[in-house]
Design brief:
Layout: E1 4-7, E2 10-13, E3 15-16, E4 36-37, E5 40-44, E6 52-61, E7 64-73, E8 86-93, E9 96-104, E10 113-117, E11 120-121, E12 126-132, E13 135-143, E14 156-163, E15 173-176, E16 191-193, H1 199-207, E17 213-219, E18 228-233, E19 236-240, E20 250-254, E21 262-269, E22 278-287, E23 290-301, E24 304-317, E25 323-326, E26 329-331, E27 342-344, E28 348-350, E29 380-385, E30 388-391
Parallel strand pairs: 2-16, 3-6
Antiparallel strand pairs: 1-2, 4-6, 5-15, 6-7, 7-13, 8-9, 8-14, 9-10, 10-11, 12-13, 14-15, 17-18, 18-19, 19-20, 21-22, 22-23, 23-24, 24-25, 25-28, 26-27, 27-29, 29-30
Length: 394
């Protein structure tokens, strides 16, 4: 799997499974990650084709940004702060900047390379480096928590490599992976973290059908730091994400709605008191001259996407001049850490009476029927019982 997928005009960084990378200066775990060349001379000049040839890679795994730099260099010099050979990785998002300077110390010693973040000793940054016959190299790991806004908006990431040919001397050339300002920060925000990039196409390939998409949103359903894609199409409710348990990249629920369904409401909400949101939607489907409106709640339970609640909320009888029946759905106030209680009112009727209201069609159904005025005036409540919301005892 490649780390970068083209999403014009941005490049999407997609996560690798946890444990893919080790900070050990061995580099064998980077074979499937496309290298980024630092071939732009930002300052000074190179003395020849082999003077300094940097090749970088970066990738996300778990809650960490991993970075690898391999440099072919015909004159290796030890670094001291801003002198000698060295490198800097600068992250820019909005008006925020995070600069990580990598200083080459004694490559044969116990600390071959050290890191400083915004000029201070790095906390939580792991580094391992090595000297090579034709140059030098190191790997590093940075917590995503140290990169504000990483998961939320486009950002820029620039590597600059300092090439000095004399011990402790000033750099004769500074190379970069992209256009940078005087401080080495990227000028453009051309990257975006996309943990779900490419997954919907995989789902379509697997099911063999590209059904009409009725709604799409993003949110945390798995209860971790990652966002999942949630897609409702004419065939399935689909949750997609690379952080799902046991290596799963999508869950699906074949909802079985009649053709012509449309969404009236589509929200992600915390409803069961556990980490991760649930999917709350209201759909309307045509059926023999009647538009039926049903509210449903879906959620992941024990590695399965399930329909955890469903209740008919309304009917519009187009074949009877627009006569209708409609209930109100409420989520009762409560603590976010506790399961929420649902309330559905008795339906209000327009143009219908007990004598003219058609009975519910026979057969099985996936939802609770409307509560009608002649069945009682009090609203009905539903509490979480195991994995499902069921009628509460009165």
């Amino acid at each position: 799997m490649l780390t970068a997928l083209a999403l014009a005009p941005l490049v999407a960084l997609t996560p690798h499974p946890e444990g893919t990378f080790a900070v050990d200066a061995a580099f064998g775990d980077w074979a499937q990650v496309r290298p980024v060349l630092a071939d732009r001379v930002s300052r000074g000049a190179l003395s020849g084709a082999d003077d300094c040839v940097p090749r970088a890679r970066w990738a996300v795994s778990g809650d960490t940004l991993y970075f690898a730099l391999e440099v072919r260099d015909d004159a290796r010099t030890f670094g001291r702060d801003r002198t000698g050979d060295g490198a800097a990785l600068v992250y820019a998002q909005g008006g925020q900047r995070v600069r990580v300077d990598f200083v080459l110390a004694d490559l044969e010693g116990d600390a071959p390379v050290t890191a400083r973040v915004n000029g201070r000793p790095a906390k939580g940054v792991r580094v391992a480096g090595t000297q090579r016959v034709d140059g030098w190299a190191f790997e590093a790991a940075l917590p995503l928590a140290s990169l504000p806004g990483f998961r939320d908006a486009p950002f820029g990431l620039a590597l600059t490599v300092r090439d000095a040919d004399t011990e402790g001397g000033q750099a004769e050339a500074v190379l970069s992976t992209t256009a940078v300002d005087e401080g080495g920060a990227p000028i453009e925000a051309d990257l975006r973290y996309e943990p779900t990039a490419g997954l919907y196409a995989l789902y379509v390939q697997d099911v063999g059908e590209d059904a009409e998409v009725l709604g799409r949103t993003q949110g945390d359903l798995a209860g971790d730091a990652e966002r999942e894609d949630v897609v409702v199409n004419a065939r399935d409710v689909v949750v997609l994400g690379r952080g799902l348990p046991e290596g799963t990249v999508y869950y699906l629920f074949n909802h079985g709605w009649p053709r012509g369904a449309r969404l009236l409401r589509f929200d992600l909400m915390e409803l069961d008191g556990r980490p991760g949101r649930e999917i709350l939607l209201e759909r309307e489907v045509p059926y023999d001259g009647v538009r039926v409106q049903v509210l449903e709640v879906y959620g992941v339970v024990d590695g399965v996407l399930a329909r955890r609640f469903a209740h008919k909320l309304g009917e519009v009888f187009d074949d009877r001049g627009g006569a209708s029946a409609r209930s109100r759905f409420r989520i009762l106030p409560g603590a976010a850490s506790a399961p929420r209680v649902f309330e559905v009112s008795t339906a209000s009727l327009t143009g219908l009476t007990e004598a003219t209201y058609p009975p519910e069609p026979p057969g099985t159904r996936s939802y609770q029927p409307l509560r009608l005025p002649w069945q009682g005036a009090a609203p009905e409540r539903f509490r979480l019982d195991g994995a499902y919301w069921l009628p509460a005892a009165r």
